[in-house]
Amino acid sequence: MRDGNIVEAKELVKRFTPKGAPPVTALGGIELSLQTGCLTAVIGPDGAGKTTLMRLIAGLLTPTAGTLRVLGMDVQGHEQEIQNRLSYMPQKFGLYEDLTIAENMTLYANLHGVPQETRATRFPHLLDMTGLANFTGRLAGKLSGGMKQKLGLACTLVRSPDLLLLDEPTVGVDPLSRRELWDILQRLSKEEQLSIFVSTAYMDEAELCRRVYVMNHGRLLASGSPEELRGLARGRCYRMAPPPGVPMRVLQGMLLDDRENIVDAVPERGAVHFIRRESATEEAMRARLPLPFEAADERLEDGFMCLLRADEEKNAAGQTEALAFAPLSLDANHAPGDDIDIEVRELVRKFGDFTAVDKTSFEVRRGEVFGLLGPNGAGKTTTFRMLCGLLPLTSGHLSVAGVNLRDARTEARANIGYVAQKFSLYGNLTVEQNLSFFGGAYGLSRERIKQRLAEILREFHLETYRHAPAESLPGGYKQRLSMAAALLHQPRILFLDEPTSGIDPLARRDFWRQITDLAAKGTTIIVTTHFMEEAEYCDRIMIQDQGKLRALGTPADLRAQNGDESATMNEVFIRIVEKAREKGGTAG
Amino acid sequence: MNGSGFFRRLWALCRKEFVQLWRDNSSLLIGTVLPIILIVLIGSGISLDVKNAPVAVVLEDASPTAQDAVSFLSGSAYFSPRYVTSRREAVRLMDAREVNAILVVPVDFTAKLARREAKLQLISYGADPTTATSITGYVEAGVAAFNASRVAGYAPRGMVTVESRMWFNDAHSSTWYFVPGLMMLITTIVGVFLTSLVMAREWERGTLESIFVTPVRKEELLLAKMIPYFCIAMLGFFLCLLASHYIYGVPLHGSLLMLVVSSVLYLFVALGLGLLISAATKSQFLASQVSLVMSLLPAMMLSGFLFDLRSVPAWVAAVGHALPSTYYLELLKSLFLAGNNWPLIGKNCAILAVYAVLLLGLAFLATRKKVE
After folding, report:
1. Is ipTM strictly over 0.90?
2. Which of A79, A107, A165 sits opposite B12 (nearest CB)?
3. Among B355, B369, B42, which Cα is nearest to B175's?
4. What pTM, to 2 d.p., does this model score?
């Protein structure tokens, strides 16, 4: 077994049968073999079945069919033996928030029966590796997301496991902490030949692994080294720079609309990166596309997108029908208007003696797409809530659509639409009832509601679901309904809070295509996101960290300010935050 | 597998539980301070006895004999009489809810007394039957005392004194009556409510998910939850016992040992139910709702704590007799107020033991080291 495979799955099926609902197939026949001593990743969008797979390996779920052997044993009937030997970090880290760092580690060491002599050398080593040595007395509940994730890792490593399972260890963690965690994982893999299996939604993380499994909708799409997966898009990737004055998202939208010839297009490092279909030759593309382009290196994400797109087209059932948009044009006037839609001066928000947002000033012009970026806890949600009038300010000035929010919140609200991060419509009302209710809430007349309802149902392809309860809609349609409800009264300004968290990459492309469409029609858009690369869709972005405004400008400006014209937004972000923290002298 | 591993892990988990209890001391407070608060509240405020009840006295016959007949009102802590001259005045006071009852001494009282036909008229405010009944009882007892003093030859003083004590001297009777019920409630709150909540919290926060993937066994996990909450409940129990004894002088006529034994048995029942609820719901909100509806409310309403099971419809009594808390309460009442009734102790302890084994067994079966 030492040199063989540490995990072997054949035809592995897991089906859940919720009461009073049709069964859900979380895993539909997976073949998997993880090599001993190897760092392996499974990537896939939310709902792909990654967590189910992890839990099956950890013996926390019983397979419906197929075989699963871990450490040379059949998981069924040997759960305890396997659990004695492997370590598992669930998505929520599994920490006791009212215990200190040291107490959490001691608890796990006691449960694993680690002898005191071993602890004396191992604990300092782990604390040193995770950078937690100075905080051993701090309660786990008082740690930042990044520190919690490192403590969770330390707890799984109190003894040397035969296999380390990590379920999405970097969700909601800032880019700096993500990088630190991966440094640790790579060191463990190299120096101790530890077998590690990690699930992730981030491509750059998968890139660091020896072997990658790609999953979607409970199926395995492909597996191989990052190199092999990248190879799926080899020779088909190009970059096209937009002409001056044209936002990248417009060019990206145009390319994405050309579905017959283009697999995927995404704004990246100041140009649009796209993949042609195998059926479309490079010559044909040159003749067809409006601008010149150059060949580009393929990335892991390109291989992944090729797989996802092919899978989606093969299994058209259950897929969200693409929206039709007005064609985009490079010649249209893309410059934002001169009117200032949002003006923020010296904005401060305190909770007790904690300053969540500190003296922040910016303005957003009519028709601009403005992004608020930052890790969890940076203050972006607080800023956002104040902008929407959901949270009073501690001090400062804030006007939205020309109305001072301090004394005329109701007026300001008539001009704004708001899409919350969580699905916040009434699940047991139908699509139509939800929309009518929101129309009424925004004060539209009955005739107006009727008219807008018809328009918006058509525009969002929701007609077939008109009488379906909102909770019964598939994920992608729920997101559309939320958007539809926010746009019913045709607001001048649209606020979107983390609209792309938890939706798959294809749905994310659709979402941004819709934003491009709305912006082209003159709607001002404010959007928060923790996907740094999505900054490229915005006209301007603002980066917050620890409540402070760290950077403000166009993506190109920020890249130029931080020295490297070809850096990804993730790298730019890390550089900006590191610089600011060094100056401020505060530790993470 | 090996014994030392079992105790090492159990100890680690128990220690964790105690540290958590200490840090988030709301559970500790519920187990220890709540019983004291309840004892004090119920002992002094919530009492079925009536004190200083305002009564309007209409002396239509103002002879010394008539005044003597109602003199018990003035000398008692239970009444605060207001002497008025007309019925109309008395009715006005009653309408204004300034008095709870009217006692009329008719014009011919003294005359009729000689013929042993004398009557007093008592009108009480029926909208509050509890108070009305108490007042009626007190007045009857007061009149009986007056009679006794008049016809000493017929009824010896001592006998009358016994009857009046039942009404007058037993002032703490409802406090005494409440204490066993209170102890049952505290044990139920800690055993079912708190335990199901803390276990459900571990499911909800995902801590169990990572604890599962260690050498820990499920019996260790369950025991590590039972031991700390067992300690808290016993602490609360003894605090209740001490407070009731030293503050209100509640007697313990039965054996202390049997009191402890039956409480330990009932606590196992409660812990079993709490762990079963948390294993079935796995969410704090659901666990709190279910334990409220399944244990706390029935224990309060149907166990004979508030309503005597002998005076409710047969089917309600049947439901009540399906509850372990009914048997525990019966035991407590009998041990506190009556003494060692061995057949009852034997029967009820056996029933509680069966419930304990059943519920703990079910909790053990329902808890699985799986997340589905």
Report:
1. no
2. A107
3. B42
4. 0.81
